[in-house]
Protein backbone atom coordinates (compact mmCIF):
# COMPACT_ATOMS: atom_id res chain seq x y z
CA UNK A 1 0.00 0.00 0.00
CA UNK A 2 1.22 3.50 -0.75
CA UNK A 3 0.61 4.75 2.79
CA UNK A 4 2.48 7.91 3.70
CA UNK A 5 5.28 6.80 6.05
CA UNK A 6 7.35 5.24 3.28
CA UNK A 7 7.47 5.32 -0.46
CA UNK A 8 5.30 2.75 -2.19
CA UNK A 9 7.32 3.14 -5.40
CA UNK A 10 9.91 0.72 -6.74
CA UNK A 11 12.58 3.43 -6.88
CA UNK A 12 11.89 4.41 -3.28
CA UNK A 13 12.15 0.80 -2.13
CA UNK A 14 15.46 0.42 -4.02
CA UNK A 15 16.77 3.61 -2.43
CA UNK A 16 15.84 2.39 1.07
CA UNK A 17 17.45 -0.99 0.34
CA UNK A 18 20.71 0.53 -0.90
CA UNK A 19 20.89 2.93 2.06
CA UNK A 20 20.34 0.04 4.50
CA UNK A 21 22.94 -2.19 2.83
CA UNK A 22 25.64 0.52 2.61
CA UNK A 23 24.71 2.11 5.96
CA UNK A 24 26.96 5.08 5.22
CA UNK A 25 27.50 7.84 7.75
CA UNK A 26 26.56 10.82 5.60
CA UNK A 27 27.01 13.70 8.02
CA UNK A 28 30.59 14.51 7.08
CA UNK A 29 32.36 15.04 3.73
CA UNK A 30 35.61 13.47 4.99
CA UNK A 31 33.85 10.25 6.00
CA UNK A 32 31.61 10.00 3.00
CA UNK A 33 32.07 12.53 0.21
CA UNK A 34 29.77 10.65 -2.16
CA UNK A 35 26.83 10.49 0.24
CA UNK A 36 27.17 14.17 1.20
CA UNK A 37 27.30 15.16 -2.47
CA UNK A 38 24.24 13.02 -3.17
CA UNK A 39 22.32 14.70 -0.33
CA UNK A 40 23.24 18.16 -1.59
CA UNK A 41 22.17 17.30 -5.12
CA UNK A 42 18.81 15.94 -3.95
CA UNK A 43 18.27 19.03 -1.77
CA UNK A 44 18.98 21.25 -4.77
CA UNK A 45 16.39 19.31 -6.80
CA UNK A 46 13.86 19.83 -3.99
CA UNK A 47 14.64 23.57 -3.85
CA UNK A 48 14.20 23.82 -7.63
CA UNK A 49 10.86 21.99 -7.49
CA UNK A 50 9.57 24.39 -4.83
CA UNK A 51 10.82 27.36 -6.85
CA UNK A 52 13.59 28.57 -4.57
CA UNK A 53 16.70 30.30 -5.90
CA UNK A 54 19.25 27.49 -5.49
CA UNK A 55 22.06 29.98 -4.83
CA UNK A 56 20.21 31.39 -1.83
CA UNK A 57 18.57 28.31 -0.35
CA UNK A 58 19.79 25.48 1.81
CA UNK A 59 18.33 22.49 3.56
CA UNK A 60 18.93 19.24 5.33
CA UNK A 61 17.38 15.78 5.22
CA UNK A 62 15.96 14.60 8.53
CA UNK A 63 14.37 11.37 9.69
CA UNK A 64 10.80 12.65 9.51
CA UNK A 65 8.46 15.60 9.70
CA UNK A 66 8.26 15.65 13.50
CA UNK A 67 12.04 15.93 13.88
CA UNK A 68 12.10 18.55 11.14
CA UNK A 69 9.44 20.55 13.00
CA UNK A 70 11.46 20.52 16.22
CA UNK A 71 14.51 21.73 14.26
CA UNK A 72 12.64 24.49 12.46
CA UNK A 73 10.73 25.79 15.49
CA UNK A 74 13.95 25.91 17.49
CA UNK A 75 15.44 28.10 14.72
CA UNK A 76 12.32 30.30 14.84
CA UNK A 77 12.63 30.61 18.62
CA UNK A 78 16.30 31.61 18.40
CA UNK A 79 15.47 34.11 15.67
CA UNK A 80 12.86 35.72 17.94
CA UNK A 81 15.22 35.86 20.93
CA UNK A 82 18.04 37.31 18.83
CA UNK A 83 15.89 40.19 17.59
CA UNK A 84 13.96 40.73 20.87
CA UNK A 85 15.88 39.69 23.95
CA UNK A 86 13.07 40.70 26.35
CA UNK A 87 10.94 37.89 24.85
CA UNK A 88 13.08 35.39 26.79
CA UNK A 89 11.42 36.57 30.03
CA UNK A 90 7.97 37.06 28.50
CA UNK A 91 7.19 33.53 27.32
CA UNK A 92 3.50 33.84 28.24
CA UNK A 93 3.11 36.85 25.92
CA UNK A 94 4.52 35.13 22.83
CA UNK A 95 1.82 34.00 20.37
CA UNK A 96 1.65 31.19 17.80
CA UNK A 97 -1.15 30.95 15.19
CA UNK A 98 -2.40 27.75 13.56
CA UNK A 99 -5.65 25.94 12.77
CA UNK A 100 -7.49 22.86 13.97
CA UNK A 101 -6.07 21.05 10.90
CA UNK A 102 -2.46 21.63 11.95
CA UNK A 103 -0.60 18.37 12.61
CA UNK A 104 -0.08 17.62 16.31
CA UNK A 105 3.69 17.40 15.76
CA UNK A 106 3.65 21.22 15.91
CA UNK A 107 2.38 21.43 19.51
CA UNK A 108 4.72 18.57 20.39
CA UNK A 109 7.68 20.47 18.88
CA UNK A 110 6.68 23.65 20.74
CA UNK A 111 6.69 21.64 23.96
CA UNK A 112 10.13 20.12 23.26
CA UNK A 113 11.70 23.45 22.33
CA UNK A 114 10.47 25.07 25.56
CA UNK A 115 7.60 27.08 24.03
CA UNK A 116 4.56 25.20 25.35
CA UNK A 117 3.54 28.01 27.73
CA UNK A 118 3.14 30.61 25.00
CA UNK A 119 -0.32 31.73 23.80
CA UNK A 120 -1.86 29.40 21.20
CA UNK A 121 -4.38 31.00 18.77
CA UNK A 122 -6.58 28.65 16.81
CA UNK A 123 -7.46 30.51 13.59
CA UNK A 124 -10.82 29.79 11.93
CA UNK A 125 -10.94 27.79 8.70
CA UNK A 126 -13.19 28.30 5.66
CA UNK A 127 -15.60 25.74 4.16
CA UNK A 128 -12.63 23.98 2.50
CA UNK A 129 -10.67 23.70 5.75
CA UNK A 130 -8.15 26.43 4.83
CA UNK A 131 -6.89 29.02 7.29
CA UNK A 132 -8.93 32.23 6.96
CA UNK A 133 -6.45 35.01 6.32
CA UNK A 134 -8.91 37.70 7.52
CA UNK A 135 -9.20 35.92 10.89
CA UNK A 136 -5.41 35.64 11.04
CA UNK A 137 -4.99 39.37 10.43
CA UNK A 138 -7.58 40.20 13.12
CA UNK A 139 -5.91 37.91 15.67
CA UNK A 140 -2.43 39.34 15.03
CA UNK A 141 -3.72 42.91 15.25
CA UNK A 142 -5.58 42.20 18.50
CA UNK A 143 -2.49 40.62 20.06
CA UNK A 144 -0.25 43.48 18.95
CA UNK A 145 -2.67 46.04 20.41
CA UNK A 146 -2.77 44.11 23.70
CA UNK A 147 1.05 44.29 23.93
CA UNK A 148 1.62 40.59 23.24
CA UNK A 149 4.37 39.28 20.96
CA UNK A 150 2.98 37.72 17.76
CA UNK A 151 5.75 35.30 16.77
CA UNK A 152 4.92 32.37 14.52
CA UNK A 153 2.29 31.33 11.97
CA UNK A 154 2.13 27.66 11.04
CA UNK A 155 0.43 27.15 7.67
CA UNK A 156 -0.28 23.73 6.22
CA UNK A 157 0.23 22.69 2.62
CA UNK A 158 -1.71 19.43 2.55
CA UNK A 159 -3.38 18.72 5.88
CA UNK A 160 -3.25 15.08 6.92
CA UNK A 161 -7.01 14.60 7.34
CA UNK A 162 -8.39 16.61 4.38
CA UNK A 163 -5.45 17.47 2.08
CA UNK A 164 -6.41 21.15 2.34
CA UNK A 165 -3.81 23.77 1.46
CA UNK A 166 -3.85 27.06 3.38
CA UNK A 167 -3.64 30.26 1.25
CA UNK A 168 0.13 30.39 1.66
CA UNK A 169 0.76 33.45 -0.47
CA UNK A 170 -1.85 35.55 1.40
CA UNK A 171 -0.53 34.31 4.74
CA UNK A 172 3.06 35.08 3.67
CA UNK A 173 2.04 38.66 2.85
CA UNK A 174 0.43 39.09 6.29
CA UNK A 175 3.44 37.55 8.00
CA UNK A 176 5.81 39.81 6.11
CA UNK A 177 3.74 42.89 6.98
CA UNK A 178 3.83 42.06 10.70
CA UNK A 179 7.40 40.76 10.68
CA UNK A 180 6.57 37.27 12.00
CA UNK A 181 8.04 33.86 11.20
CA UNK A 182 6.10 31.65 8.79
CA UNK A 183 6.50 27.92 8.89
CA UNK A 184 4.79 25.88 6.17
CA UNK A 185 4.15 22.25 7.05
CA UNK A 186 4.39 20.74 3.60
CA UNK A 187 5.15 17.20 4.83
CA UNK A 188 2.17 15.84 2.94
CA UNK A 189 1.55 18.41 0.19
CA UNK A 190 4.97 19.86 -0.62
CA UNK A 191 5.29 17.81 -3.74
CA UNK A 192 1.80 18.72 -5.01
CA UNK A 193 4.00 21.15 -6.95
CA UNK A 194 4.86 18.29 -9.30
CA UNK A 195 1.46 18.80 -10.96
CA UNK A 196 0.15 21.87 -12.82
CA UNK A 197 -2.84 22.23 -10.48
CA UNK A 198 -0.61 21.74 -7.43
CA UNK A 199 1.71 24.51 -8.63
CA UNK A 200 -1.22 26.92 -8.81
CA UNK A 201 -2.50 26.25 -5.30
CA UNK A 202 1.02 26.13 -3.86
CA UNK A 203 2.00 29.44 -5.43
CA UNK A 204 4.55 30.90 -3.04
CA UNK A 205 6.43 34.14 -3.52
CA UNK A 206 7.77 34.59 0.00
CA UNK A 207 8.42 31.77 2.41
CA UNK A 208 11.53 31.24 4.47
CA UNK A 209 11.09 27.65 5.57
CA UNK A 210 9.15 24.93 3.87
CA UNK A 211 9.27 21.37 5.11
CA UNK A 212 8.40 18.65 2.65
CA UNK A 213 8.54 14.85 2.74
CA UNK A 214 9.49 13.25 -0.59
CA UNK A 215 8.22 9.86 0.63
CA UNK A 216 4.58 11.05 0.60
C1 LIG B 1 1.00 17.30 7.41
C2 LIG B 1 1.86 16.43 8.29
N1 LIG B 1 2.74 17.00 9.13
C3 LIG B 1 3.52 16.23 9.94
C4 LIG B 1 3.46 14.85 9.94
C5 LIG B 1 4.34 14.04 10.87
O1 LIG B 1 5.23 13.29 10.11
P1 LIG B 1 6.23 12.19 10.73
O2 LIG B 1 5.38 11.01 11.03
O3 LIG B 1 7.21 11.94 9.63
O4 LIG B 1 6.89 12.72 11.95
C6 LIG B 1 2.54 14.21 9.08
C7 LIG B 1 2.40 12.76 9.08
O5 LIG B 1 1.47 12.21 8.60
C8 LIG B 1 1.74 15.03 8.22
O6 LIG B 1 0.86 14.48 7.38
Instruction: Count the beta strands.
Output: 5
Which ligands does the model contain, each kind named once?
A: pyridoxal-5'-phosphate
Structural class: alpha/beta
User: Helix-strand pattern, N to C?
Assistant: HHHEHEHEHEHE
**Average pLDDT taken over every residue:** 88
Report the total helices. Answer: 7
Which regions have little confidence, pLDDT < 50, spanning 5+ residues? none
- Characterize the largest beta sheet: strand count, sense, and whether it forms a barrel: 5 strands, parallel
Radius of gyration: 18 Å
Question: How many angstroms separate the termini?
Answer: 12 Å
Helix percent band: 40-55%
How big a fraction of the residues is strand?
5-15%
Summarize the structure in words.
The chain has 216 residues and is α/β, with parallel strands linked by helices. The N and C termini lie close together (12 Å). Helices cover 41% and strands 12% of the residues. The protein has a five-stranded parallel β-sheet with strand order 2-1-3-4-5, with helices on both faces. Pyridoxal-5'-phosphate binds at residues 4, 64-66, 103, 105, 158, 160, 185, 187-188.
Provide the fold topology.
Layout: H1 10-22, H2 33-50, H3 65-83, E1 94-98, H4 105-112, E2 119-122, H5 133-145, E3 149-156, H6 168-178, E4 181-186, H7 196-201, E5 209-212
Parallel strand pairs: 1-2, 1-3, 3-4, 4-5
Bound molecules: pyridoxal-5'-phosphate (PLP).
Pyridoxal-5'-phosphate binds next to helix 3.
